[in-house]
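#dry-run=false #mode=assembly
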Amino acid sequence: MECADYGITRALERDNLNLNPLQRGGVLPAAARKALYEFGDGYSVCDYCAGRLDQVTRPAVNSFLDDLADFIDADAVRTVHGAREGKFAVMHALCEAGDTIVADGNAHYTTHLAAERNNLEIVEVPSTGYPDYEIKPEAYREVLEDVADRVDVKLAVLTHVDGNYGNLTDAEEVARICRKMGVPLLLNCAYSMGRLPVKLREIGADFVVGSGHKSMAASGPIGVLGMRSEWEDTLLRRSGRHEKKEIEMLGCTSRGAPLATLMASLPHVVERVSRWDDEIKKTRKLVSELEEMGGIRQIGKRPKEHDLVRFETPVFHDIASSHPRKGFFLYEELKKRRIVGIRRGQTKWFKCSVYGMTDGQVQYVIDSFREIIEKNRN
Amino acid sequence: MECADYGITRALERDNLNLNPLQRGGVLPAAARKALYEFGDGYSVCDYCAGRLDQVTRPAVNSFLDDLADFIDADAVRTVHGAREGKFAVMHALCEAGDTIVADGNAHYTTHLAAERNNLEIVEVPSTGYPDYEIKPEAYREVLEDVADRVDVKLAVLTHVDGNYGNLTDAEEVARICRKMGVPLLLNCAYSMGRLPVKLREIGADFVVGSGHKSMAASGPIGVLGMRSEWEDTLLRRSGRHEKKEIEMLGCTSRGAPLATLMASLPHVVERVSRWDDEIKKTRKLVSELEEMGGIRQIGKRPKEHDLVRFETPVFHDIASSHPRKGFFLYEELKKRRIVGIRRGQTKWFKCSVYGMTDGQVQYVIDSFREIIEKNRN
Ligand SMILES: Cc1ncc(COP(=O)(O)O)c(C=O)c1O
Ligand SMILES: Cc1ncc(COP(=O)(O)O)c(C=O)c1O
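#status=ok
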């Protein structure tokens, strides 16, 4: 049989500045590139396994998990395949089909899918809507109290930073509310862990999930699941028949290269999280300079507390209406300048991030947008 | 915070001949090494995603899945995180808590864990026991009929080739029995798909799962789930709220490097499967030459139809009893000769595989065992 040509090259990230928020936090540092080379083959992390991935000492998965637990201030940590698989595991361990959970209105689709796969009912805490889309702890409390009057709420899920507006929620306050009501809280840190400080116990959450490929400079798919000690028995329950094996992990999870990259990247991630304030400065500069151009407006909470920015861009939509390339002009103008990551044909609004870029690169992005506007504005 | 040194190097596979069956089928060919380099960063396969991983065209995940479906003669194929995650998904989609499934007595622990995580009852088809440990279709039929008298059997699982004895089961015959009784059959091909020909429709199975890191020359974790068209609605059911997203896949599964390696390796895998007979010849040569040395006996079905071989080795156990290094001598003698993959301290029996080795390497392994015996035999 003949295989097609699958086009397995990816020059996008090498040759361009990528504004796609999804890709900014997953770029590998040199150490992780080396780990990929070393641990590329099959079950590469399993050479010295005695039955438990989290206890492997060569490479030192065990000390890595200790460091990671420290880093996120959790009592126990496991790697999972991603944030969504972590959410699924928590829901699966805590809930039964038909149970009700509460989630914020900015939750990622994977929160909904994890719940749907577990046959759970989601009651939603609405955001404040346009233009801030804020999730207020007060609203969370109201919904939680209201639902708790009717049914037993098995779990509360809060998106620490959402993927639509890049809003950072007040997790401490929501955790206080949940604790008071006796509802365990799962904090979805896919967009925060590895970018900004996340401290499970300080926040007061019961569980956190993180995403290695999204925000921890790791090869996908890999994620992090952290928990308080009181949940270990539930979440890390062992098999009756295979004593060493944890059921929710199906024995073991990330048995290969992505884990090696997550491990190799941890020192880099620890360091970059300590420079989070610089990232915020860069982001705010981007926002203020773009807004100054006119016809561009940042949506979501102000001022920005995260690198993911959503802009409404009537200026580009106006240009598109009379441009010979129509809606494609923006993508093409950016592409000419080696800037990518904004969807082809989209001009009304876009999401972007300059996370991890140098000041010079951020300036170049700003200047490029200015040039495109000046050149094309009617 | 200071991170420990995790020792993220892996010279084992570079510097030695590795007899560990778990690692023989996961070694990357050059094309997959290149894919790893290209697709190392984060969500690398998601640049051009319009909401469905299996429909991504750059890289051409869509045509890859078409070719893969062809290769394993399935109507629909998805990538999953591994064989176990594929088994979990099938059980989760077909069964409810408390349901009963039937599985063979040589099933991998991950079959048990997938069932346990789904709260399923497993009824086991016993093997013939020592020394062949064969799973006979007749025994499968008896158990199935017996259980079906009492409860509704929701699924039958058969290990195509098991990981303890490397026995190839008569999947066609078991499939015939299952079909006759109206019980869907899931064939666990973790040790077969990518090594020997696996044809879902020819066999008559409803589902097959494969393991990329174990047998398909891919970086872990990645697996393959193939099915007949009549199961697509059940297994690939879409979310009510997010129309494009498949619930059992949590939207998407392998979002990164392992998928790129699986794709890059497919032509290599297709080619090597066509040379399976040569692998069997090598394995049988290993068995006959080792058995000729005396005090070594192949366990499991004879003659070998798979590269995984389990040997009983009283000769090494005898030596260990009076050797100054006790049970460690075998490991150490092999290590000196740059042969690894047999557990340290183990001399009563071991599992090994020479899959993918050249004839010269196989001869070297054989000669090494002979030398070790001659040098140490009392
Ligand atoms: C807020 C949020 N949660 C979860 C996810 C999914 O992360 P993963 O791919 O690790 O499951 C995303 C990805 O876009 C996200 O933005
Ligand atoms: C027969 C069998 N099934 C399943 C597995 C697990 O495969 P995966 O790691 O892809 O889940 C193994 C691994 O050893 C195996 O031998």
